[in-house]
Fold this protein.
Amino acid sequence: MRRPPGLLLGILALSLQTGCLIWPFPTGDMLAGRGRITPQYVSSLQVGRSTREDVLLHLGEPDEVVDGGRTLVYRWTEVRGFLAAGGYGGAVAIPFSGHRALRLEFGPDARLARLAFEHGAPGSPAGPVPAAEP
Amino acid sequence: MGLSLPLGPCLGLALLVGCAPPQLRQAAPAEIQAEWLAFLSDGKTTREEVLLRLGTPSAQLEGERILTYAFARNAAGARNSVGRRWGQAQKMPVFTDPHIGSLVLVFAADGRLVRHSLVVSE
């Protein structure tokens, strides 16, 4: 069966109008969480000295309370960039999300024993975050 | 003769400006003394007064010693209590409004407020 040349020309014209763009820059949008926590902001919290109370007053309500408060976790998800594909009359953009977390562990005396920034989705093995970004 | 500008750094700067996500910060004293929080006074305000004025807290830690309230500000400037929604990507309940404030109240054994703070993002 022969296809009408108009249809083929239409498909060809449409394919020329489509495009794909990968935007590898943070847009500043938050997908989840109350806000980004920077190393500078938590620099006043000192391991061995700051108490759970100090941490809560400084960071607010945690997103996870583990082991009856022995560990507090603050999580946020940022847009790290997006993939955009567009055609004549339509387009779609898919954001790349970057999961970040700050995990704080306390000793039996309720003083801060460990503070660490992590990345990766909750439940996945977390890895260290480069020093340049939380 | 036209002005020659380095295109790369200019484009990079343009991309970075305004692209920082909201960051947590401590509220300024004036924000804590706003009308709806003006009743909070360390050493005087009781847990009962707080619960009557602000309602059910969004979280409580160390028994009832530390209470927290999460709230968002709408376009008219009014404050609404907010809760977490299930985040598909995070597989856990998360706040989805980036402009949520967190009020933290610490009480003594006698039920009086001893310390409080307001953490906001911007």
In short: The longest helix of chain A spans residues 5-17.
